[in-house]
Structures are given as C-alpha cells and as structure tokens.
Specification:
171 residues; alpha+beta; 4-stranded antiparallel sheet; 3-stranded antiparallel sheet; 2 helices; 10 strands; elongated
Amino acid sequence: MSRAKVRWIWVCSAVAVLILAAVALVCWHGAAEPLGNFPISLHGTTNDPIRGLVASFSVTNESRMSIYYCICPVQVKSDGAWPDLRIPRSGGSELASGGADVFSVVAPAAAQEWRVPVVWGYRPTGYRSVTGRVKYNLRLNWDRLRHGRFPTLDNHAQFTLHASYSPTFSK
C-alpha cells in the first residue's frame, strides 16, 4: 500500500472519530433549553360562600416553545420555611408559545403566608424527544444491567422540570 493511501486512511479515520465524538457530545448534553419565563400573577379574588376566598391566577408562556405545566397544591409557610414541593401525578396542561391561561385555587383558611407553585417543562419534540428517549433508556438499562435484569426499551422522553411560584399572600 502506498504511503499516500495510508495517510488518506488515517485522515479519514480521524475525521470520522471527531464527527462521532461531536455527535455523542451533542446527544448527551442536548441543545440548551430555550429562554423564556413562565410568570404567575394574581388575576383576581372572590369570596365564595361555600369555599371561602378563591384566588384566580394567570400564567403566560413567554418562550418560543410549547410547554407542559401542572398546578401544584397550595403551599403554606410554616416556621419560616416553605414545605417541599408536591407534584400531582396527573392534571397537567399544554400551553402554546405566547399563550396564557387562568386557574383558580382556594386560599387556605388559616391566616398564614401562602403561595401557589406551578411545575413546568418544555415539551420535548423532534431532536429533543429522541435524545431524551436515548438518555432515559441508557440510564434505565444501565441500572437494570447492574441489578442483573434484562434491558428494555421504554418510550418515555426525559425533560427538565422547572418550578415557578405565585406571589406570596397573607390574610
């Protein structure tokens, strides 16, 4: 084999390794989350004769992607600290880019500080969905193999959850 041919093979191999490393790096880290806020503001209050004080809030998706969001139970400050965030297992909604929605909660009866947490995340689509599934399956199957179980293929995409909070209120 000629010297030029050997050099050509080495150059092509090096380029292929660099391309594979770049693809692996992009797939592992993924694209950055799109910038945008998810503000929660008080829309109004009303005194319901049965439920008591009902507060209406508005949420706005200021990002350029659709998001999923879920209203969490009202948090009441106790001993100067907020309780851990409890995320409901169901009841989420999708909100398009630039969209807004209104929701209502019953204010706690006790005269303490309270707020409403909302958990949200960008809806994984296209590239983000595929890389999320790959990451999820790699972690899931690595754990399964470590415990002597067979690998499986799961179709769940992994995405980051964020929390936003309403303004704090006290009665």
